[in-house]
Design brief:
single chain; nine-stranded mixed β-sheet; 311 residues; alpha/beta; globular; disordered N terminus; 10 helices
Length: 311
């Protein structure tokens, strides 16, 4: 395939417009967010963002709708994914930007991950039923609304709707987190392998919320060095799950390996509190470094990669 280069255009460039507001991690109803892709883009524009990335879990299904909306709302859209991976037995989420989702080895791995989600769903529902929770798989899929990536947040929504809990947070804390009665592990690609696949697909990989949740157990200077050698482009330094001290230490680790430092809201609509669009943003110079790295990988891969839309 021929390769289309990522271009700097409109408000995305940030070269003459002063401060540009850039949020590189959001979710729509294509995975576990509550806004349709087009509505998410509209909300991002209304929130004053200049650039937003759509990074649904393990799926690019929302890209086309979001791209059309980005043109209408004069905002730049960065197509991306948040991919489930595993490192030393812990879950690590990897953001892949501006890649070719049709790259066969990547596509095959994403299909395995999505299939594992379906298998886990049946097991989670069975465990909850054994605990006396009145829930079935159809309830969960109804809340998933046709999303390819059906996950624990959709189970949480079904638990809220049935009156078992009051919120997604309570559902996870009581039933769905690791060590809780409804927790079931699932297949995920080894993190270094997925970094390699994203790179080979012409994209740029960034570790999402590296010191949030289970990934804090395994993301350190040594593991970052290993991932950087595999082609990792950046770390999501500024995130709701990180304290100020966390962010400063992650900046140090990123600097040691010349990695891009991003900031993002991890917006899920009403699915998460305190994750409002633009609550954490990426500096313009770091965004441009991310695009530069993506451009280099696109050229090397010779793939027809996704490009920044709208603007």
């Amino acid at each position: 395939m021929s390769c289309r280069l990522v271009c700097f255009s409109g408000r995305a460039a940030g070269l003459t417009l002063g401060r540009v507001h850039i949020d590189l991690h959001t979710h729509s109803t294509a995975s576990d967010g509550t806004d349709r892709p087009a509505d998410l883009v509209a909300a991002a524009a209304a929130a004053g963002l200049d650039v937003v990335a759509l990074t649904d879990h393990d799926s690019s299904a929302g890209w086309a709708e979001a791209s059309e909306a980005a043109t209408r709302h004069h905002i730049s859209l960065v197509p991306g994914l948040e991919i489930s991976t595993m490192l030393a037995g812990a879950s690590v989420h990897l953001l892949g930007y501006l890649l070719d989702p049709a790259y066969e080895p990547l596509q095959a791995e994403l299909e395995l991950i999505l299939r594992a989600r379906d298998t886990r769903l049946a097991d989670v529902v069975e465990r909850l039923q054994h605990c006396g929770v009145d829930i079935c798989e159809a309830d969960v899929r109804r809340h998933a609304g046709g999303a390819l990536a059906v996950g624990r947040p959709h189970v949480a929504d079904a638990l809220v709707a049935s009156g078992v809990v009051a919120s997604r947070d309570e559902a996870f804390n009581t039933w769905l987190d690791r060590g809780r009665p409804g927790y079931v592990s699932r297949y995920a690609t080894a993190t270094p392998r997925m970094v390699e696949l994203v790179t080979a697909a012409g994209g740029a990989s960034v570790v999402a919320h590296p010191w949030g949740r289970g990934s804090r157990e395994v993301i350190d200077a040594e593991s970052v060095e290993t991932l950087a050698a595999a082609g990792l482009v950046g770390l999501e330094v500024h995130h709701h799950d990180h304290t100020g001290s966390d962010s400063r230490m992650l900046e140090t680790i990123a600097s040691e390996h010349d990695l891009v430092m991003t900031g993002s809201s991890d917006y899920h609509g009403t699915g998460k509190v305190n994750h409002e669009l633009g609550s954490h943003v990426t500096p313009t110079e770091e965004y441009e470094r991310l695009l530069d790295r993506a451009r280099v990988n696109a050229l090397a891969s010779r793939r027809e990669v996704a490009t920044v839309a709208g603007g």
